[in-house]
# Entry
Amino acid sequence: MTKKRLRVGKTGEVAARSHLEKLGYKILETNYRCPLGEIDIIARENSTTVIVEVRTKTGLEFGRPEESITPKKAHRLRRLALYYLQSVYKREISCRIDLVAVILNEDDNSVRTLSHIKGILSG
# Structure
C-alpha cells in the first residue's frame, strides 16, 4: 500500500473515532488484528458492541465509500465480528456492524463529508 493510501486511511479512521466519541461511544479498540484480518474500530454504544468499518476516499471517480462494501467484504466483516466476540466475550452479546464513510479533500486531506450508517449488515 502506498504512503498516500495509508495516510488517507489513517486520516479517515481518526475522523471516524472523533465522530463516534462525540456521539458518546466508548472506543474499546482500534485496528484490532486477528488471523482473519483487521477491524478498524471496536466501540460500545450503551450495551451494544459496535464493529465499525471505516472507508475513506479522496474522490468519487470510483464511487462513494459506502459502495465499496462488496459481498466478499461483508462476509469478511461478519466473520471478523464473530471471531472478536467469541475471543473476547465467549458468550452471546448485543452487537452490530456500522460503517463510517469519509470523503477527504484531495488537496489537504481535510474531511469534506462523513456519514455514519448503523447496522449495515443484517442476517
Notes: The chain has a mean pLDDT of 92. The beta strands are 26-34, 37-45, 48-57, 95-104, 111-117.
